[in-house]
Amino acid sequence: MPTEQEENVTITATINRAKLDVFRWRYELSIPKKLALAIGVAALTGLLAQARFYLPWSPVPLTGQTFGALLAGVLLGTWWGGASMALYAGLGATGVPWFQGWSGGFAYLTGPTGGYIIGFILAALFLGYFTDKFVRARSFTVMMGLMLFASFVLIYGPGLLQLNLWLANVKGQEATFGQLLTMGAVPFLAGDAAKAAIAALIARGITPKAAYGKEQDGDKWSGWRIP
Q1: Left, alpha or beta for 153 (phi > 0: left; psi -120 to 50: alpha)?
Q2: Buried-most residue among 107, 108, 115, 149 (CB within 10 A)?
Q3: Which value, to the nearest 10 degrees, does the dihedral of the CA atoms of residues 103, 107, 113, 115 take?
Q4: What pTM was estimated for this model as a whole?
């Protein structure tokens, strides 16, 4: 009979093989199937958007959307992860009611939070690229760093820019950089860091630690310890 250690090794190998097979499968899917998955991730992001909390001094609510955007690229890869967030933004702009508060329409994208949604597309493209191209990026430590950059630069950047334009053009209010940070960034730093940590843990758990496509470091991974 196999020992407990041998059984654990077999179970671990089976799980790792399953993760590799799933990611290779989604890598090789036909375009209609990839499109269906992209729409599914967009719908998941819309569902997460309904978890929201408003702050009295800011027109920007705390929502769960960022979590969906961070995982989109990991789950679908570069282009289809980005496509899922583009579908979320585009279909929502046409009236699909999956923005926060079950709302939709182009006016939402021109409002105070529209820039963050554009940032979701950039974040998904960025994280999808690293997930696709580098086995090493699938570690918790590296993925956490990438997700923090995606959140605080790629999402907050367009978000704060749009917020500033909205305040100036709609509210007639000239905001300083410090005021913009107070309204559109500082209150959300801890929550978004926590979402990034959870998303990085999920990414660490579901991504294979072996090459499944055209990774640039696919011939080097076997000598690494990936935490």
Answers
A1: alpha
A2: 115
A3: 130
A4: 0.88
